[in-house]
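ARCHIVE CARD
Drawer: 12
Card no.: 0347
Subject: one protein chain, sequence and derived structure
Cross-reference: see card 0346
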Amino acid sequence: MQKIPLVDVHSEYEQLIPQLEARFREVLDSGQFIRGPHYWAFQEEAASYLGVERTVGVANGTDALVLVLDALEIGPGDEVICPAFTFYATAESIARRGATPVFADIDPATMNLDLEDLAAKVTPRTRAIMPVHLFGRPLPVEPLLGLGVPVVEDAAQAFGAPGVARLGRVSTYSFFPTKNLFCLGDGGLVATSDEELADRVQMLSFHGSRDKTAFDFVGYNSRLDELQAGMLRLFLPRLDGWNLARREAAARYAELGLGELVELPRDEPGHIYHLFVCRSPERDRIRTVLADAGIASAVYYTTPLHLQPALHFLGYEPGSLPVTEEVAGDNFSIPLWPGIPAEAQERVVDTIRSAVAVAAHR
């Protein structure tokens, strides 16, 4: 029985291997491995794609968040509001700066921030709001703009989602190999139309310096690698096609009747399905049956951030974010990637149908 992976990244770049090898040879022959021509060119191309004035390539998505918070001079005594249903890096970056993560609950339908709960958490100490465009679904940013604090968009899972990066003060991205736009290792990006902020992030990412001679800030060593920038320049022109293929695969799951068996992610035009995350009270049984059939699945944030050991000092208790905790207990993702074969999706749905049928007759 052929196994079905959760994501098949190799299938996305397989046809590009000759071009990737040629790009590797080009960088190797140039001897410019740090801040070479691909580094600068990719930043311009990414800015044009995202519709912003500037982007800064950094070492990874986590560094992108830390650098932005540093550039905004957010630190001890400040609060940043974010979700607890997200990857640890969101809150980690805030705590790394000595600021306090303040967690708001989520909307059960979108798994993104609950805007009413978020607004209720704003205090005089709030220095930023950090919405997460989770699983490729963009959160509407417009309602946040009237709250009087900078909006820092954590768009690690949403490169290419319409509207992201256009309204907030700044947005950050990850190019981890399973992302919609990925590189062949680690990489990240900061995007903004605030030139002063972009300059500060650029300097902070380069030891707080413009020229490695005069050092204006205590900075970091966090630069997007030249080789990865070269690979990203090959992938970026294909991103829209890949995202469209993800949406087509998501629609196929609905057409196959999966929504009769589990709760599907609600579709909307801007959703680019970094992951296809469903919900079911029978999650664990479904995942066991999928695994027995050689089909990969995954769960996310089963211990939400407000209950993580490293953040226990914040004082949150079980039950403090009820929707977050409910979704943490019943979410799971199933295979989806650009070009996933229809027969693979049919097998996934048939297997889930068998699991749900057994559960119904227990």
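Annotation on reverse: The first helix runs from residue 9 to 13. The mean pLDDT is 96.
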